[in-house]
Amino acid sequence: MVIRGATTRLRRILPRFIRFGVVGGFGLLVDIAVVYGLRRHIGLYYAGLISYFIAASANWGLHRIWTFKGHRKGSALKQWLMFLAANSLGFAMNRGVFFAMAASFATVHRHPIIGIAAGTITGLFANFYLSHRVVFKVDHPR
Fold this sequence. Notes:
mainly alpha; 6 helices; 85% helix; 0% strand
C-alpha cells in the first residue's frame, strides 16, 4: 500500500520535474552565457552573482507559463520575489559549489562551465521542492 501510494505520487510529479529540468537546462545556458560574457569585465565572482539572478528570473518566467501552468496565483512581481526568496537555499548551494570550485581548482576558474554545472545540479532538488510547494503551491490530493 505504501509503495503503491509512492508510485502514484511519483507518476503525478515526474512530468513536472522533467519540465522543471528542461527549464533548468535553459537557465544553465543563460547562466553560462552571462558568466562568460561578463567575467573579463567585472570578474568571475561578480559575473557569477549577476548571471544567477538573470538565469533565475528567466527560469521563473518559463516555470510560470509552462512548468507550473495553471498555478499562477497572485501578482507576477510578488511571485517572482517569492521565487527568488524561496530558492535562496538553492542559490546558496548552487553558488557555494561554484565559488568553492572556482577558488579551489584553476581548471574551474579558467573554465567556469564546470563549476556552474556542478552548482546547478547541487541546487536542483531544493529549488524544485521549494518552487513546487512554496512558490506555485501545487497541492496533490492524498
